[in-house]
Amino acid sequence: MRLLDRLRERGRTDGVSDTGADDECRCEPTFRTPAGSDPEDDAVLVVDADDCQGGGDLATEPTCRATVVDALADRDADAVRVRRDGRERVYDDGAVGLLVAAGRFAARVAVHDESLATRARRDPLGAARTATGRTGPVAKLAASSGLAAGAERADGEYETALSSTVGLTVSNSRLIERPPTGATLVERRELDTGATVRRYRTDRGDHYLLEPLGSRLDDAERRALSAAYDRLAAGDVGGDRPVTRAVRAVDAVADEEAVSVDAVERVLRKHTRGHGVLDDLFADPAVSEVVASAPVSDGPVRVSADGERLPTNVYLTRRGAAALASRFRRESGRGFSRANPTLDATTEGPFGGSIRVAGVTDPASDGTGFVFRAHETDAWTLPALVANGTLPADAAALCSLAVERAAAGLIAGPRGAGKTTLCGALLWELPPSTRTVVVEDTPELPVAALHDVGRDVQAVRTEADDGPALSATEALRTALRLGDGALVVGEVRGEEASTLYEAMRVGAASNAVLGTIHGDGAESVLERVVTDLGVPASSFAATDLLVTLSADERRRVAGIEEVRHADGEVAFESLFERGPDGTESTGVVDRGNSHLVASLARPDESYADVLTALDDREAMLSDLADSERTAADEVDAAHRRRVTE
């Protein structure tokens, strides 16, 4: 080890590059001792590069590389974190392995070849090429130290060998800055948060690359950001608008170095009052879902953008996941811990609107993971779903008339298929004078929007598993006592199903009954309700129709079936199903063979009269969709005019 120390000292005193420039590294490496409660509990080498001309970039600066190799020769680490001016570059896995191997090789080969040991500290890949080209102990040391294998994986390029993720020190996420090798840019968009989105195409599929506003801050702006963040963390800023006050408190730096105070303030607010870089993803109108699978640090965040699941260049840190979990506990008032390892809650998006959060943590998973689903700020309507191709106008007309005339219906499909969206759209098809009681644990249905246009809607909240709140069954029984009217259950999934179906069977609700349920078709739903939830088949027969949404990339209605009951058996008749050109009628309705259509006839109407009503409703919905009058207030106004005419 004394020989390696001499080589280190020689490297420091030489301090001259091949071009003659002074390139002495002034990075200060320190090993961080992990605390037992720290979620980032790996051994980490933290490198302070504020005073180093090379900036601690290990992929481009040989002297900085030598400093880190020397530190790792004495002690292993699972990651190297280089910090400079409020920015952190993180090297882990293969990158750290190569640096550790270089340190081992340098220490062992010095007795055979001092110049090669010196080169290994600054240029591990070059030293590996030289060593593997030899025979004898030098080549064996390259193999036994792991240097040869690390260099082979790198394919001779430092950008590959020492790739890193980058982020602000105030953030709980890291980014890969470069697009995938060989990628082709196919789309570029600007977001309202100041971020830029680029979509790249590769042989393995498309990639979603995010460049947040914070990535474009210069050194002075990042220093101002860090100083303002420290003031907030220390509690030095009070009163109203603490983020603004914290930034203004460092405007001496801003005045001196022309810092964009507005940009610094926006970034600070996002990382202290918002959800960090996730807010950029939430703000992208093309993104409907954001997934951070546990353990979050092992893989990229993924998004569903325009119906396609894509990997991003964003990585959450474990500390970031822990901070989000703590925030969601505070906001929801629900437990999320080893005792309650799942979470179902909502949080506010960057520009209003709500984001639904599903979480899982130990011991149910290996660490903490989240799925975020965007809620539309504007309520969906049936004409809007016709316009975007979710279902055709004739199928929408059947659903509309059935809901208006007090049918009992279930909307089925897998997670994320759009069940709640369709259920919410159908609420606008209820007669405007109908009182509606909505039972759900997480607010998703458009209760506020219905209130805004004067509809009589009562929400009943149920909490699952924890907290002093109504159980699902108690909430449903309460809803049945809150007056005659339509009943809507956000999701049928437990013991409340028996109460719901008993109410339907005895006619406790004289208006429409709607609910959503997981299932991929009529038989699947029947099995779930009767076998899993314990509802008698005779009670299930109180269901009039079942609408199933597809599980493919585009949210579409896959089928509409009516429920029939004869001789103690439940059967289904398909009214609409998927065809080569989309969802198509099976002809049962038009041939006069639909039990559902027959049941919709009023006392003074025939089956033919109901067909005429369906034609009129189809024409109305088509006109609204074609003329782009699909907003909630416009659809509500159209129904009110129809009722009064």
Describe this structure in words.
Belongs to the GSP E family. Pfam families: T2SSE (PF00437). One of its GO terms (molecular function) is ATP hydrolysis activity. The chain is α+β, with helices and mostly antiparallel strands and 645 residues long. The chain has three domains: 135 residues, no CATH class; 208 residues, Beta-Lactamase (2-Layer Sandwich), CATH 3.30.450.380; 263 residues, P-loop containing nucleotide triphosphate hydrolases (Rossmann fold), CATH 3.40.50.300. The chain contains 25 helices and 25 strands. Strands 19-18-20-21-17-22-23-24-25 form a nine-stranded mixed β-sheet, sandwiched between helices. α4 packs across α5 and α16 crosses α24. The protein is elongated. The termini are far apart.
Strands, helices and their partners?
Blueprint: H1 2-14, E1 28-32, E2 44-48, H2 62-74, E3 79-84, E4 87-92, H3 94-109, H4 114-122, H5 124-132, H6 137-144, H7 147-154, H8 158-161, E5 165-168, E6 173-175, E7 184-190, E8 196-202, E9 205-211, H9 219-234, H10 242-248, H11 251-257, H12 261-272, H13 278-282, E10 287-292, E11 302-305, E12 308-311, E13 314-316, H14 318-332, E14 342-348, E15 354-360, E16 369-374, H15 382-387, H16 393-404, E17 408-413, H17 419-427, E18 436-440, H18 447-452, E19 457-461, H19 472-480, E20 486-489, H20 496-506, E21 513-518, H21 522-532, H22 537-540, E22 545-549, E23 557-566, E24 569-579, E25 582-585, H23 595-599, H24 607-626, H25 632-644
Helix pairs in contact: 2-3, 3-4, 3-7, 4-5, 5-7, 9-10, 9-11, 9-12, 10-12, 16-24, 19-20
Biased composition (Basic and acidic residues): 1-15
Organism: Haloplanus rubicundus
GO molecular function: ATP hydrolysis activity
